[in-house]
Design a protein that fits this description.
Elements: H1 3-13, H2 15-26, H3 38-50, E1 55-59, H4 62-67, E2 74-82, E3 86-89
């Protein structure tokens, strides 16, 4: 089995776990405005810890956050080392636009 087939097999085998992880992430409101994003970073760090990753937390200074019209921002740095000298670092963001109107159920809860 080649590397891509192995990766596909792993993804398929862990599909439900991946869905639960993403469900937990979207349950933390990050609507911008108001831009209160630190709680999402905290939850993300907790969830990643459950996978064996440590997240460095870097709070953006309040003056910079307020100047951007937001309430809080915490950046996470999460690294994964593979072998000698290879590190994977991913970049993403957690803020979203408000979910809008017309929902029959709260989109952030079960």
């Amino acid at each position: 089995m080649n590397t891509y087939a192995q990766l596909d097999a792993w993804i398929d085998a862990h599909f439900d776990e991946q869905v639960r992880f993403l469900q937990e992430l979207i349950r933390v409101p990050t609507d911008t405005p108001p831009g209160n994003n630190a709680p999402h970073a905290e939850r993300t760090a907790e969830l990643l810890h459950g996978f064996g990753f440590e997240a460095e937390k870097h709070a953006v200074p309040e003056a910079e956050v307020r100047a951007a019209g937001l309430e809080t921002i915490t950046n996470l740095v999460v690294r994964r080392k593979y072998g000698v000298g290879t590190t994977v670092l991913l970049n993403a963001h957690g803020d979203v636009v408000p979910p809008g109107e017309g929902w029959t159920k709260n989109p952030l809860r079960r």
